[in-house]
Amino acid sequence: MEKEQNLKDFLRDFHRAQDNAIFFLEEYWNKVHPDKSLELTDEEKQEIYTNNKIMVPLFKNDDSLRKYEEEVAKKRAQGLKDWEIF
């Protein structure tokens, strides 16, 4: 049971790191390479995220797209940045 949960946690972070350069930077790069650590402004993070995102959401219909856009807008209104949402 614990092994299964650990595997789920690993795969969740692995896929997030693949799709989100800022997550990779903050959770892996800066910890593994403290001598090459990068402290970026929100504007720099947004530029890196925008230019390197891989995720392309697929929707079954217009209703699914609308719900997705509403959820993203809600999270942005809460002050989350794109790289924190995805």
Report on this model:
- This protein is an all-alpha fold.
- Helices cover 71% and strands 0% of the residues.
- It is built from five helices and no strands.
- The chain has helices at residues 2-19, 21-32, 42-52, 62-77, 82-85.
- α1 (2-19) packs across α2 (21-32).
- It starts with a helix and ends with a helix.
SSE blueprint and pairings:
Blueprint: H1 2-19, H2 21-32, H3 42-52, H4 62-77, H5 82-85
Helix pairs in contact: 1-2
Multimeric state of these chains? single chain
Spatial shape = globular
Please give the share of residues in helix: over 70%
Distance between the termini: 28 Å
Radius of gyration: 15 Å
pLDDT < 50 runs, ≥5 residues: none
**What's the β-strand tally?**
0
**Tally of helical segments:** 5
What order do the helices and strands follow?
HHHHH
Average predicted local confidence, pLDDT: 91
Taking the sheet with the most strands, its summary is: none
Instruction: Give the structural class.
Output: mainly alpha
β-sheet strand percentage: under 5%
Give a short overview.
The chain is 71% helix and 0% strand. With 86 residues, it is an all-alpha fold.
